[in-house]
């Protein structure tokens, strides 16, 4: 049996991509990445393999502008299959480039493959990371900037400089060994300790730190810090000693500008804050402290991330205690701050028209999913899996997107096999794929049964965060929704024993991953896929497979042919 991709569809898709990158004056960005393991970096001062890109950890910046076409030729020089996903990049009409197990065959060791995508109608701060086999715990992540086109003003004065700050907790251990602990037991493995890294560097003054992060600024100038939580499990509170933060953007949305002393950033989230160097010439602490943790303000505590803000010309070393933030156990502070982050309705972003011209004040919801993230044990003393509505996702050998295109999913998954509104009973393991109504509004209610902060991400979309709450979500909870100016983002936190509600307009057909951003949860099964299907074969509605499409699983021995 041969599989056929019509030549006309491939040509039409290529033409659409060309039009998208020329009519809107997008540039072409060509990148070549060599991905390797390096044991000499020792970010936590222990011997462990670190995933590098072109010898760098973190990886190189992708610095793009709205509507640019990005081509990344990835050479896999590590010893296991590899993919990269582009956290927050929506891949408009093109889930073929999303870089997760449900959309792409992996790049095998010793091989290379080129991702090609357009940052269509987006601006903002994002990051990329390896999506398979727990590899994010080994590094391979890096920043993405999508800048405004020159014809669309940024809603704040041009800062003196732009800094990327990737912060996250990091295992002091070989990521492959941690992976083995999770899958081979015991049921509650004693996982290794964590260190909070800033741009891949350990905490300042920590006795074991070899290199720490610092930024040099000029007195009186204002700087943009793009802060991303690239960590594995810890939300953190971010602050800079004696300086206030002006929140201006999150994950592609300009926000109502809000001055804060500190900012909670949850796993997978990105923010832009403006910092003005308005203090005396000196050095100042930059701090990231984990939420729901008893970590003190002692810089020698590995899980307390500490860097330095240095004033140009300063001869005064940092002094005093590390500045304290809100209580790490104060969830009321965190949720109230989250509710105060609102969409700037009047600012332009990727398009000249104001962000608020597209809003949720009068939408009609066509679907509601109520999804509970939790854990479930496989038998007495067995492995503890992460679940969605008590289903732990099992990754098939064949990517869902390929199976969907070539065989309507037959032999790989069954659409809507599991409930999206209630528990599916005892622990079940399977391929969880839910149907989303194309160009319908989805109300997505995410609940958290556990005692830690969860974090959820939806590929392919920015969603409107309309509500947070503690306790059980009910239909009456809708009366508390903010339908006037909810912020649009792609990753949202869910507080312990709480719920979060978002609205998503499903105008981007494809196969889209919905997952916990906490790496252990994702790796152990807390994910599903949302299939948004448009039956119209016109590639203007959804791109055809790329010409360099990799085949695997049940399609491994098949060959694409072009139709004539």
Write a structural description:
The chain is mostly beta strands and 564 residues long. Helix content is 9%, strand content 37%. The protein has five helices and 34 strands. The chain has a six-stranded mixed beta sheet, with no helix packed on it. Strand 21 and strand 22 form a beta hairpin. The two termini are 17 Å apart. The N terminus is likely disordered.
Number of strands: 34
On the 0-100 scale, what is the average pLDDT? Answer: 91
Question: In this structure, how is the largest beta sheet organized?
Answer: 6 strands, mixed
Bin the helical content.
under 10%
Rounded to an integer in angstroms, the radius of gyration calculated over CA atoms is 23 Å
What structural class is derived from the secondary structure elements? mainly beta
Strand content: 35-45%
Q: Counting H and I runs of at least 4 residues, what is the number of helices?
A: 5
Quaternary organization: single chain
Main-sheet strand order equals 11-10-13-18-15-16
Could you name the ranges where pLDDT drops below 50 across 5 or more consecutive residues?
A: 1-24
Give the terminus-to-terminus CA distance: 17 Å
Q: How would the global form be characterised?
A: globular
GO molecular function, one term: copper ion binding
Family: Belongs to the multicopper oxidase family.
Protein name: Monocopper oxidase-like protein SKU5
InterPro entries: Cu-oxidase-like_N, Cu-oxidase_2nd, Cu-oxidase_C, Cu-oxidase_fam, Cupredoxin
């Amino acid at each position: 049996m041969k599989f056929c991709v019509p030549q006309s569809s491939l040509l039409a898709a290529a033409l659409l991509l060309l039009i998208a990158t020329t009519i809107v004056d997008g540039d072409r960005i060509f990148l070549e990445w060599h991905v390797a393991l390096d044991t000499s970096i020792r970010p936590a001062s222990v011997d462990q393999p670190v995933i590098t890109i072109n010898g760098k950890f973190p990886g190189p910046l992708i610095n793009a502008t709205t509507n640019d076409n990005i081509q990344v030729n990835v050479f896999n020089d590590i010893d296991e299959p590899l993919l990269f996903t582009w956290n927050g990049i929506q891949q408009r009409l093109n889930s073929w480039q999303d870089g997760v197990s449900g959309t792409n065959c992996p790049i095998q060791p010793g091989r290379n493959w080129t991702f090609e995508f357009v940052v269509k109608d987006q601006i903002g701060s994002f990051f990329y990371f390896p999506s398979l086999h727990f590899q994010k715990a080994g590094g391979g992540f890096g920043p993405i900037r999508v800048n405004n086109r020159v014809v669309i003003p940024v809603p704040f004065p041009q800062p003196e400089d732009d800094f990327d700050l990737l912060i996250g907790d990091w295992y002091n251990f070989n990521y492959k060994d941690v992976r083995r602990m999770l899958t081979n037991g015991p049921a509650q493995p004693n996982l290794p300790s964590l260190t909070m890294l800033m741009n891949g560097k350990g905490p300042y003054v920590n006795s074991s730190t070899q290199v720490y992060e610092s930024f040099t600024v000029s007195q009186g100038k204002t700087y943009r810090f793009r802060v991303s939580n690239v960590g594995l499990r810890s939300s953190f509170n971010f602050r800079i000693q004696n300086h206030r933060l002006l929140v201006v953007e999150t994950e592609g949305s300009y926000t109502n500008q809000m001055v804060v002393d500190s900012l909670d950033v949850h796993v997978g989230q990105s923010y832009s804050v403006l910092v003005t160097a308005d203090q005396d010439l000196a050095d100042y602490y930059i701090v990231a402290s984990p939420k729901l943790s008893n970590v003190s303000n002692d810089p020698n505590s590995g899980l307390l991330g500490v860097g330095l803000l240095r004033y140009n010309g300063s001869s005064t070393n940092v002094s005093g205690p590390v500045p304290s933030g809100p209580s790490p156990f104060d969830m009321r502070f965190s949720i109230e701050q989250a509710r105060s982050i609102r969409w700037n309705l009047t600012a332009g972003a990727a398009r000249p028209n104001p962000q608020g011209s597209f809003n949720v004040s009068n939408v009609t919801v066509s679907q509601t999913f109520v999804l509970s993230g939790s854990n479930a044990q496989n038998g007495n003393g067995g492995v503890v899996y992460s679940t969605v509505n008590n289903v732990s996702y099992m990754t098939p050998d064949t990517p869902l997107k390929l199976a969907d295109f070539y065989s309507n999913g037959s032999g790989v998954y069954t659409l809507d096999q599991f409930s999206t509104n209630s528990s599916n009973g005892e622990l079940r393991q399977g391929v969880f794929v839910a149907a989303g109504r194309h160009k319908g509004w989805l109300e997505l209610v995410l609940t958290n049964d556990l005692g830690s902060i969860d974090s959820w991400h939806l590929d392919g979309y920015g969603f409107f965060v309309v509500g947070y709450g503690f306790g059980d979500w009910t239909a009456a909870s809708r009366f508390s929704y903010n339908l006037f100016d909810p912020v649009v983002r792609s990753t949202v936190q869910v507080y312990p024993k709480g719920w979060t509600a978002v609205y998503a307009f499903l105008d981007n057909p494809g196969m889209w991953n919905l997952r916990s951003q906490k790496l252990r949860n994702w790796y152990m099964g807390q994910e599903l896929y949302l299939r948004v299907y448009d039956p119209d074969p016109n590639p203007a509605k959804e791109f055809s497979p790329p010409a360099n499409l990799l085949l695997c699983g049940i399609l491994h021995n098949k060959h694409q042919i072009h139709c004539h």
